Amino acid sequence: METPGSQSSLHRANLERVVRAVRLAGSLTQAEIARTTGLSAATVSNIVRELKDGGTVEVTPTSSGGRRARSVSLSGDAGIVIGVDFGHTHLRVAIGNLAHQVLAEESEPLDVDASSTQGFDRAEQLVSRLIEATGVDRSKVAGVGLGVPGPIDVESGTLGSTAILPGWTGTRPAEELRGRLGVPVHVDNDANLGALGEMVWGSGRGVRDLAYIKVASGVGAGLVISGKIYRGPGGTAGEIGHITLDEAGPVCRCGNRGCLETFAAARYVLPLLQPSHGTDLTMEDVVRLARDGDPGCRRVIADVGRHVGSGVANLCNLLNPSRVVLGGDLAEAGELVLGPIRESVGRYAIPSAARQLSVLPGALGGRAEVLGALALALSEMGDSTLLDGTATGSLATVGSAFT
User: Fold this and answer.
1) pTM of the prediction?
2) CA 396, CA 358: separation in Å to the nearest integer?
3) pLDDT at res. 328
4) Mean pLDDT for the chain?
5) Nearest C-alpha neighbor of 237 from the set 227, 226, 223
């Protein structure tokens, strides 16, 4: 039995600090572990040796700053995590190991009007299919990250009102999936997971204050403040789509008029082009046509960019982020949309805040949310299981790194 403050309890705490640092980063050199944990280089070296001998971590030669170094990552057979992302028209599932490698990933269409029961049936089936395809042991699943396109009440875990999956309002997604899979499930909205994915592996890497803006069927933002996702006390932080741009504008699904969403979301933008481009047009089509030089599509995308930029300017004035990452189909338009966003930020934001801001497209594309779900599962799992040796076994390491 360990006594608080004893040498053995201190050693245990140091082991957990090192394992946590490596788990969240994917891989670190021993020097980086020392900087991250505040432990001395000698202590880190001894702990890494102990963890390596126990099969918890793997150590491979690398270089850092032109010098030889050793890269430390969790063992590929230490366990697996699963990411599940429900979108407006899709279901995407990914399986990754604790060394930040994707073992399997698949996406399939999802009927937006499907009930929550049907949606979770599909998710359970897809998870089972991927586990079987990779040959991993179900007992190695350490946790699941789940993304849904709507606000999650922080205390109850209940999905709030959403026009994207209307049949799901009032459900408890994490509880439902946990009952089906029998493992811990952690849930968040898709914009927060997009922010987490880009922060860990994409365009937000190395930045401690950023906003991930997702423009799709709705408009939402995932906010990172001091390196952590900010959800607010009720879980509704980041509803940038409901900033009022024109109080006499179109009526929004939230009941107000002239919200940013009514000028930028696909459901409002696509009808502008349907008389000239047909009723089957999608935002993906609009972006592709704009890149090919279609003047109508270019105009619409530029207008959307200016409206989104007005919302970003408000974020700059309130939170002063150092980076904004644009996700969703719209990000594929590149400078056709990023230029107008920067133009509006320069016009409406406080000059000092605008000068410090960089606006970039997401690096992960449509995978941002499901990779963010994997990151959520990784961040929420405990380290005691790894150290106690109950999550060891055989797990084939296939696939590619998250990046």
Assistant:
1) 0.84
2) 40
3) 85
4) 88
5) 223
